[in-house]
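thread from #wetlab-drylab

HS: before we spend reagent money on co-crystallization trials with arginine, can we at least see a predicted complex? here's what I'd submit
DV: go for it
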Amino acid sequence: MKILLSPPKYFDVMYSINPWMNPDQPIGKKEAREQWDYLKKRLEQEGVDVKLAEMPSPDLPDFVFTANAGMVMGNRAIVSRFRDKERQPESEYFYKWFVENGYETLMLEDDEVWEGEACMFPIAGHVLCSHGIRADKKAYRKITDFFRIPKEKVVYAGIIDPYFYHLDVCFCPLNENTAMYCEMAFDGETRAWLKQNVKNLISVSYDEALNFACNAIIVNKTVFLNKGASIELIEALHQAGYFPVEIPIHQFIRAGGGVKCLALYLDRWDNPTSD
Ligand code: ARG
C-alpha cells in the first residue's frame, strides 16, 4: 500500500480555523516530530510504501495534513480547494506533487470547496460525499465525473458538528462492509443511511470520537489510531478481525488533526466504483 505523508518541518498552530486550534498555545515541535516519525516508522514496518511531499513554507503550517491534499482513485487525482484563505495556497503545491508523480490531475474552481479524502470515502458499494463545514455539495459534480462515479452510487453525508468538521474525524471505512463512526456528527438522513447500508457499523461514542478514534489509517488488518482507545472499541475492532495499534498524536490534535489526517491513500481506491 502507498501512502503520502509530509514531514512536519513547519508544522504549527498559527491561526484558528477549527475549534481545536488555539494559536496562543505553542506546539511542542520536538514532540510533534517524534510523534510523526513514529507514525511513519510503524507504517513502514507494516509494509507501507511511504511517499513524501515536503512542506513548502512556514506560512503553510497545516500542509502536514495530507488527507487534505486531494484524493486519488486509480491514476486520477483531484486537488483540494480549501475553505479558508490560510490553507488555499497549499493547492498549487499539491497539484504539482500529483502531476510530477504521474497522476492525471484535476484542479477544481476556487469556489468548489472540498478538502480531499478527508471529505469522501467509498463504503458499501457507494461513495460517501460529505458536505457542510468544509465541503460544498456543488463540488461533487466535477469530482464524481472525473472519478467516473455513477450518480446512483453517490451518498451525500451531512456533517453537523463543528468538532467533526471533516468526514475522516467521524467516519472510517475498514473495508467495504465495515466502518467506525460517530453517530452524533451526522444529520438524521445520513445516520439512517449508514445504519441501513453498512453491515458492520462500529459505533464510537462522542467522547471517544473527540479523542480522534475514528481518525484511523487502515493497513491490511491493522488500525492505526490515537492513543487511548477504550476497551469496548478495541474489542469491537478485534471482533471485526482488526488489530488496533496506538500512535500518540496529541501535538497534531492541537491543530485538529489525528493519525488519518496526516495521511493520504495513494492506491487504496484503485478502481473507481463504476459498475
Ligand atoms: N488544522 C487543519 C485544518 O483545520 C487540520 C486538518 C485536519 N485534517 C483532516 N483530514 N481532518 O484544516
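DV: The pocket of arginine is lined by residues 17-18, 21, 62, 65, 67-68, 87, 118, 166, 168-169, 255-257, 261 (CB under 6 Å).
HS: ok that's useful, forwarding to the group
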